[in-house]
Each structure stands twice: as structure tokens, then as C-alpha cells.
Amino acid sequence: MVDHSYADLELARLYDVLNAWGPDDDFYLGLVMSARSVLDVGCGTGRLLRGARAAGHTGRLTGVDPAAAMLVQARAAAPDVEWVLGDLESARWDGEFDLAVMGGHAFQELLGDEAVRRLLGGVRQALAPGGRFVFETRNPAVRPWERWTPDRVREITGPYGDEVRVWHEVAGPVVGDRVTFTETFSCAGWQRDRVSRSTLRFLDADALDVLLGEAGFEVTARYGDWRRGAFAPAASPEIVTVARRA
């Protein structure tokens, strides 16, 4: 998850350690490599576009993110990629990209319909006619937040060799389609634990399709996992959506 609680520079350095390259990155990398111009919305540390450049992509790669600390990591690792601090409303590209992606479940940080509409409007404007927008959300039907409990602690080694313990805990009852939780980072070398509080929205596929249709997108494919398995509304862990600018 490209969680913007990682605006703290220390936590931004931990992001790629916590979120090692996985099947979701492979999925998006294949799409990026087949497109001439790519916009990564909520790019975080820029791992996807850095991977694409390292894999030989020679076209335009642009990442946009509102967290300056994350872009510090991106720029240091790949100065030949275009990194933009801000959002789609401030950048306002016009028909410049064949593909836009939004990975890391960042779409779930949009907590209201108006925020989703603004995002989709900005993506649509940035895409050339027929361009694709690909993103994923967790499937609310499988209630993944029930596994976000303090007893599930991850222990990682930070970039400077320090041991960091990380755990999640749901904060209060689920309210409609919104889940609020805390993420705690604990390290013996720090003066205090770092605790971030986030809220995510869990939209089902039908609700996503309504918002996409209103924004001028046509859903051309939907997968339930990173192997492109068919989406099963009651069982798939992911709702991976491929939408075309109509």
C-alpha cells in the first residue's frame, strides 16, 4: 500500500523494505513495458517506474505523488524518470499518456465519491483517447481488515541495519465502507514508536463501475488476483480493474 503516512523521511526509507517486489509489481510492470508513455499516480518511492527503466523501457515514465519524502527516494534512485510532487489537479496533463496506473491500493485512500470523481477526471484528462487506467482495491467481501491485528507482527531490518517491528490494529468499528486503523513502527534505537492512523474505503465492483462509467471509462477487464484469475465477487482478494478512456 502506498500509504502517505510514510511522509516521514525515516519511514519512507522503510517502505521498500516492508513492501518487497511481488506479484502485483510483476503485473504492473508487464503493462508498463507495453506502453509508450506511462503515468504512475501515487508512485511512492517510484519502485515500479524504476523497475521499468531498469528493464529497458525507453519511453516517457512519469510518477506523481504528494509525499515529498517518498519522492526523495525516487529521485535518488532514478533521476532519468520524471517525478512530480503534487497531484493530478495541480499537474493537469492533457492527453499525454497511453497508460495510467495506481497501485499499492492507493485508490482506497479516496474516502468520498467526490474525491474519486476528481481523481478519475484527472486521469481521464491525462490519458490519450483509448488510453487505459489500471488500479486495484481490496475486495470488501473477504473482510481483510479482520486480519489486521497486533499479534501479527512483522520484524524487518531497516536500511541502516536496525531492527524494526511493525503491526496494524483496526481502530474502532467499521463505519459503512470505511475502515480506520493504526500502523505502529517500533525500533529500540528510536526515542519513541511511530504510529500512523489511516482510513481506507472498501468499494465493491458494482460501486466502482458506476463511478468509472460516470467519469467516461469503460471497464475492459477485471481480475481477482495478480495471476489474472477471474474475479469472484465473494472470494477474490483483489478487485483489479482495467478501464479504457471511452
Keywords:
Rossmann fold, 11 strands, 246 residues, seven-stranded mixed sheet, alpha/beta, 7 helices
| Widest sheet: strand ordering | 3-2-1-4-5-11-10
- CATH class of the largest domain, anyone? Alpha Beta
CATH architecture of the largest domain: 3-Layer(aba) Sandwich
Task: Name the CATH superfamily assignment of the largest domain.
Answer: Vaccinia Virus protein VP39
Gap between N and C termini: 28 Å
* Count of alpha/pi helices: 7
Query: Structurally, how many domains make up the residues?
Result: 2
Order of helices and strands: HHEHEHEHEHEEEEEHEE
CATH topology title of the largest domain: Rossmann fold
Q: What is the average of the pLDDT values?
A: 92
Task: Give your account of this protein's structure.
This protein is an alpha/beta fold. It folds into two domains: 4-139 and 202-245, Vaccinia Virus protein VP39 (Rossmann fold), CATH 3.40.50.150; 142-200. Helix content is 27%, strand content 32%. It contains seven helices and eleven strands. It has helices at 9-18, 23-33, 47-54, 68-77, 88-91, 113-126, 205-214, and strands spanning 37-41, 60-65, 82-85, 97-102, 127-138, 154-157, 163-170, 178-187, 194-201, 217-223, 238-245. Strands 3-2-1-4-5-11-10 form a seven-stranded mixed sheet, with helices on both faces. The protein has a four-stranded antiparallel sheet with strand order 6-7-8-9, with no helix packed on it. α4 links the parallel β2 (60-65) and β3 (82-85). α2 packs across α3 (47-54). The longest helix has 14 residues, at 113-126.
